[in-house]
Amino acid sequence: MPRVSGHRSRWSLAPILWVPAGLALGLLLLPLVALVVRAPWAQLPGLLSRSEVAQALILSLTTAAISTAVSLVLGIPLALVLARSADWPAVPRRLLRALITVPLVLPPVVGGVALLLLLGRRGLIGQYLPFGIPFTSTAVVIAQTFVAMPFLVLAVEGALRASDRRFEVAAATLGASRFTVFRRVTLPLVAPGVSAGAVLCFTRALGEFGATITFAGSFPGVTQTLPIATYLQLQTDPDAAIALSLVLMIVSVAVLVTLRDRWVPGLTS
Amino acid sequence: MTLDAALRVDRGAFDLELDLAVTAGRTVALLGPNGAGKSTALAALAGIVETAGTIELNGRDIASLETQYRRVGYVFQDYLLFPHLTVLENVAFGPRSLGTPKQAARAQAAEWLHRLGVTDLAARRPAQLSGGQAQRVALARALASNPELLLLDEPLAALDVEVRDDVREELAEHLRDWGGLTIVVSHSLEDVVALAHEVVVIERGRATQRGTVRDVIREPATRYVERLVSRWAED
């Protein structure tokens, strides 16, 4: 596609459009400015060193990392199935894609309720399990994975569709088994897509609130992740809530900036 | 060493019906216009497209085998060197896939690079190679997997005109040195003369003429070959 942005285009933006564009930018940016401006910087070290804050931070980072790992292990094969479903009949192919997209558009709270109905003590599967899943750290991971994995699947699938499958054919002519082809050719070729998907997945898992509080509750140290702790602190100790928000924002932005800079060409070029 | 194949590929509007016999040291060229079915024939031999026919390679029927078990080396028109691997790793890919331990595979790869005179390229990535270099690496990679049949699809088409003559000569030399069963696809009579001993002319999915390179040039059986020969004679 020819790029117009490199040199001055004869077609400049209609002035009237600058107004909504500016408003949109303000809406996206100003809340974060407020957060930074109003943060109780002086008390910050004290607030952050409190044990429940550290607890929530560690729990959030750990569960989000595990959710991302689970999403990678399960999501990459699913992305492969999806990307290679081109020769399937249209109905199952579209159905599969729609099913994967559902968690993206579903309100997370609904996801949490649905997970309870599946894995709760009287749930579809939960009633047969010898152990309870809801309100454990496992439930946190499951809720986060439910919400975040589709981001990874779609990112990897896009990369797979864009990659040249003839490299896989070339590998096969050299005697490589299907799994070797996957491990040494397919996967490395879509590594940028996998990284981008993993970053999206991690940040989404880190910010997960609705599905987690519904399915896992809010037990400090067990299921009370950073977003949940933030929300609860806001009612009793606003300064602590602001501090927690800052931490969440910094972690999210840091993850995005460091990883995307390296792996997602779209943001750097 | 022999290849005896009866290829039958049916793709609706296009079908290929081609019998091929190749013996070691007598490289066969598939010559024909674009879309005649040359590349399809190679793909059928390598197991990339399905064929209803038979393929007997050194007494082994490989027609029903998956690509990875056929031991058919393939030099693609645009080489398809793995962009994320170095030249050495590209060439070591075949041996490693066949179960050779990493260090030994690398040693074999280094040996092939040496044989093809590209040892100094070992650490480079494919993106850093010229067309001629990439072609030699692709040949080294195919040969390193120890194939029983070597297929070359338009091996010179991706090269600049200025270097094509040199690369063609070198390629002919390397193929002679290797000495195994070889089929080369081309639509250039120059390539055929330099690289092959026998020619099968393919037009619209059928063989329209077979013979030694010399015979086919002397007595073209179709207008297509006639035109190729007269154009070649003018150059």
Explain how this protein is built.
The complex is a heterodimer of chains A (269) and B (235). With 269 residues, chain A is mainly alpha-helical. Chain A has a single domain (49-263), classed as MetI-like fold. Helices cover 73% and strands 0% of the residues of chain A. Chain A has 13 helices and no strands. In chain A, helix 6 runs antiparallel to helix 9 (191-207) and helix 11 runs antiparallel to helix 12. The two termini of chain A are 15 Å apart. Residues 264-269 of chain A have low confidence and may be disordered. In chain B, strands 6-7-8-3-9-10 form a six-stranded mixed β-sheet, with helices on both faces. A four-stranded antiparallel β-sheet of chain B has the order 2-1-4-5, covered by helices on one side. Chain B has one domain (2-85, 147-234): P-loop containing nucleotide triphosphate hydrolases (Rossmann fold). Chain B has eight helices and ten strands. In chain B, helix 3 packs across helix 4 (131-144). Chain B has helices at 38-46, 87-97, 102-115, 131-144, 161-178, 189-195, 213-218, 223-234, and strands at 2-11, 14-23, 28-31, 54-57, 60-61, 72-75, 149-153, 181-186, 198-203, 206-212. With 235 residues, chain B is an alpha/beta fold.
Might you state the CATH topology name of chain B? Answer: Rossmann fold
Low-confidence stretches of chain B: none
Number of domains of chain A: 1
Estimate what percentage of residues of chain B fall within beta strands.
15-25%
Gyration radius of chain A, to the nearest Å?
22 Å
Return the domain count of chain B.
1
Beta-strand share of residues of chain A: under 5%
CATH topology term of chain A: MetI-like fold
Number of DSSP strand runs of chain B: 10
CATH architecture of chain A: Orthogonal Bundle
Largest interface by Cβ-Cβ < 8 Å:
A-B, 19 and 24 residues
The rounded distance between the terminal residues' Cα atoms of chain A is 15 Å
Low-confidence stretches of chain A: 264-269
Strand order of the largest sheet of chain B: 6-7-8-3-9-10
Radius of gyration of chain B over all CA atoms, rounded? 18 Å
In sequence order, what are the helices and strands of chain A, one letter per element? HHHHHHHHHHHHH
Taken from the alpha-carbon principal axes, the silhouette of chain A is globular
The SSE order of chain B reads: EEEHEEEHHHEHEHEEHH
As a percent range, the share of helical residues of chain B equals: 25-40%
CATH hierarchy class name of chain A: Mainly Alpha
